[in-house]
Backbone:
């Protein structure tokens, strides 16, 4: 079956009323769990798995696809309005998005996030429809040195989020790196910084740090400043909708974010975070309004939001074409396929073409649904900010704690939440940027792992790190990012002294 | 409103998992939802419920981490003498206890049954010059460091397979260039793309990619050949290496003899049931039923053997 007729077939199935209902249920539920901190699509689908025995496979997968895409949409809402991202993919959105919300432009930020997600989700789904086999080959081409070069590039480029003081930025980054070292070293089985606490052996859970640094830290900060702050300006003062200028500044970041997110999402060790870091950096370099970055630049919301949705679409590529799950959610989806006796992989399109094409068609349908669901909701969500802050932040606190407890059932994690939350509060008081902590925690362990794999394969020869064309080019770009501004700065100062 | 509906959804789901019956069993899954230990905890109870063998329901706790030893520690601490408490476990926990130097061990629980097994396979890239086990051993003897080996976590079953191959070939298992991967997906792409020389994983994870022509299986780790895989066992190839990723169920510490007999009877009935046979098929598990004293003896042998291998590989002192 060629893609076009397969897709038409798929639409015929996906547009049946009962399947539309499942798609709606999935997208709705996905949006809700995206909004809640700590609860992600993987956990939700895992909880729903036993229920799927009672519904037919096509309906179940249409619902799961809705949850999967919906969670990516919902994640941006709390990032933008409350500076409390629920999952790591929407962390970069909080940087500019929350500043926009503080200026009364929350609705515009939510709109650009929703439309950007729609654009990226749709282009990503087109990618799944027509480009899946060649994109899936990337998984075999990427070697550890290529991954390491990609992470090096992400590392060196994120210095732009370091805030006004580089020293504070680096301190924050190193806090993240040290948190990332905790746990059993996977290569040798040695324990690092676990202090004999068994719960620390598997390392610090990223979600715990994310939720506590942002949600708990923000809550403490708001509470401590409650008496002194002037009443917030009308959250809707900046209008309910994007201006013409907003559109002009958003459409290119949407496309660029998509181009970064889709292929990186399709890599086994890619993930949704790296493309959002790279997209943010790229937009900051390319913008015509560099002075607005850090104070609510719409490009900084549009790019990363598109990138994380495109990455979500990318994850489905190796799952559907090769049967390879490359994220926790994909692994649960694979388990769901196997529950129905289906084996994803090269034969899935041949053996169960109807189901796969219905699933892909439902991704288009789900995307449209999410846009319809989210655009009017943007205005509604912003009204959250009218809730008196004591109630609002009490609610955030409860939801964060329940979310983390639900995921891990661990007292150690709850204790860690409060200590990391306190750290987040102190960092806010002394004007340290928060994002570098998470960047260090996410990228540090990944980069270490790939570096050591590459060196093991090269038997210790460091030249292996630039031994493939991809790694050589990426390492080259990474060094240019550091060297070019330094060289320009040196020339400028020399001219002045002459 | 969304939050209410979501909460209702979760409540319905949870209610579906844990019906409110009189005397539900307390079941520990020492791994995350959706993983191997999770399935080993839930599916036997699904089968027992469906067949009417044990219908009082069960409350499941998922507690992953450190090779399952965190769940083990909590299970032992909370269920002293509880005839109603059981836990899923397997060979990875045997290694995990040694690797993590866990103060709580399998001596603290009451072994009940071994239920399933997942045979391992040794594979190379399709275009690799290594055609069989003899070629692999020759390559390892020529330059052990140059053979990049991929597989699951350090000290896990995949690592144990390679360490035993090295030992049988007279090589030092501590100098293997073993590179652990988090997921079978990552291992298989690294192998298929040529970054690894050889990799070990479960048959169910590698077979689809071998069938698709991405990788080539050169040996299986079971006693004899496995249906559907065109490769000899390591034993046939002349190496005395038999390793399986088996899983089973243990009871609470200090479980009474009556409690033990009750559970052994339930699992014996479940093992004979049609529902369980269907479960084995859909999960791709091999039946490896071993009950009571036979399982205790097997478990003791595994503890000794794995302890020695991990020492040889330099992973346990």
Residues:
């Amino acid at each position: 079956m060629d893609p076009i007729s397969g897709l038409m077939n798929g639409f015929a199935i996906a547009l049946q009323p009962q399947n539309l209902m499942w798609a709606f249920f999935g997208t709705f539920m996905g949006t809700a769990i995206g909004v809640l901190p700590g609860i992600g699509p993987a956990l939700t689908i895992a909880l729903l798995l036993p229920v799927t025995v009672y519904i037919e496979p096509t309906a179940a997968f249409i619902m799961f696809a809705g949850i999967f895409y919906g969670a990516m949409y919902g994640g941006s809402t709390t990032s933008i309005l409350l500076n409390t991202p629920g999952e790591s993919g929407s962390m970069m959105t909080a940087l500019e998005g929350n500043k926009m919300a503080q200026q009364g432009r929350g609705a515009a930020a939510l709109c650009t996030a929703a439309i950007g997600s729609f654009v990226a989700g749709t282009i990503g789904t087109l990618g799944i429809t027509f480009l899946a086999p060649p994109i899936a080959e990337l998984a075999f081409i990427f070697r550890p040195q290529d991954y390491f070069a990609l992470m090096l590039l992400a590392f060196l480029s994120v210095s732009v989020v370091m805030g006004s003081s580089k020293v504070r930025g680096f301190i924050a980054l190193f806090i993240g790196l040290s948190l990332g070292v905790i746990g059993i070293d996977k290569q040798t089985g040695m324990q690092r910084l676990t202090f004999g606490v068994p719960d620390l052996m598997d390392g610090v859970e990223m979600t715990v740090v994310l939720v506590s640094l942002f949600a708990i830290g923000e809550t403490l900060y708001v509470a401590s400043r409650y008496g002194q702050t002037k009443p917030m300006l009308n959250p809707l003062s900046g209008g309910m909708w994007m201006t013409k200028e907003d559109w002009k500044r958003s459409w290119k970041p949407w496309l660029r974010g998509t181009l970064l997110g889709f292929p990186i999402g399709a890599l086994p060790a890619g993930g949704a975070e790296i493309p959002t870091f790279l997209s943010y950096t790229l937009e900051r370099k390319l913008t015509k309004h560099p002075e607005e970055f850090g104070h609510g630049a719409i490009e900084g919301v549009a790019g990363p939001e598109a990138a994380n949705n495109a990455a979500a679409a990318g994850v489905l590529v190796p799952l559907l074409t090769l049967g390879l799950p490359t994220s926790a959610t994909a692994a649960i989806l694979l388990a769901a396929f196997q529950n129905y006796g289906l084996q994803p992989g090269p034969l899935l399109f041949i053996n169960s073409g109807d189901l796969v094409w219905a699933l892909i068609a439902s991704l288009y349908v789900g995307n449209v649904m999410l846009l319809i669901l989210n655009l009017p909701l943007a205005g509604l969500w912003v009204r959250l900010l009218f809730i008196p802050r004591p109630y609002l932040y009490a609610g955030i606190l409860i939801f964060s704690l329940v979310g983390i407890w639900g995921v891990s059932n661990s007292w150690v994690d709850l204790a860690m939440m409060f200590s990391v939350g306190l750290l987040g509060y102190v960092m806010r008081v002394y004007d340290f940027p928060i994002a570098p902590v998470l960047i260090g925690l996410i990228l540090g362990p990944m980069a270490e792992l790939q570096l050591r794999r590459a060196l093991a394969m090269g038997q210790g020869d460091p030249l292996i790190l630039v031994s493939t064309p991809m790694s050589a080019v990426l390492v080259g770009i990474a060094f240019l990012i550091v060297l070019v501004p330094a060289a320009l700065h040196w020339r400028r100062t020399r001219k002045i002294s002459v | 409103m969304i939050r209410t509906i979501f909460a209702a959804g979760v409540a319905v789901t949870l209610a579906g998992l844990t019906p409110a019956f009189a005397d539900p069993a307390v079941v520990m899954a020492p791994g995350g939802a959706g993983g191997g230990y999770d399935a080993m905890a839930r599916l036997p109870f699904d089968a027992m419920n469906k067949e009417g063998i044990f219908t009082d329901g069960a409350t499941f706790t998922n507690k992953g981490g450190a090779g399952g030893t965190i769940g083990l520690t909590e299970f032992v601490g909370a269920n002293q003498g509880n005839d109603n408490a059981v836990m899923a476990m397997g060979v990875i926990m045997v290694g995990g206890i040694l690797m993590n130097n866990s103060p709580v061990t399998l001596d603290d629980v009451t072994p009940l049954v071994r239920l399933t097994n997942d045979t391992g396979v040794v594979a190379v890239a399709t275009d690799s010059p290594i055609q069989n086990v003899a070629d692999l051993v020759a390559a390892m003897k020529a330059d052990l460091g140059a053979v990049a080996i991929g597989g699951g976590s350090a000290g896990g079953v995949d690592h144990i397979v390679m360490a035993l191959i090295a030992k049988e070939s007279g090589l030092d298992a501590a100098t293997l260039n073993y590179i652990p991967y988090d997921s079978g997906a990552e291992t298989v792409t690294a192998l298929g793309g040529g970054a690894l020389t050889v990799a070990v994983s479960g048959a169910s994870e590698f077979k689809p990619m071998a069938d698709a022509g991405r990788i080539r299986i050169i040996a299986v780790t079971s006693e004899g050949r496995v249906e559907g895989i065109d490769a000899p066992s390591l034993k046939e190839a002349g190496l005395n290496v038999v390793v399986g990723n088996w899983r089973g169920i243990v009871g609470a510490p200090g479980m009474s003899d009556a409690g033990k007999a009750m559970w052994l009877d339930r699992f014996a009935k479940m093992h004979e049931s049609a529902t369980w046979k269907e479960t084995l098929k859909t999960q791709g598990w091999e039946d490896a039923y071993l009950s009571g004293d036979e399982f205790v003896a097997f478990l003791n042998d595994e503890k000794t053997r794995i302890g020695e291998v991990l020492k040889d590989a330099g992973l346990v002192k």
Summary: Confidence is low (pLDDT under 50) at residues 1-21 of chain B. Chain B has two domains: 2-117+244-312, 119-220.
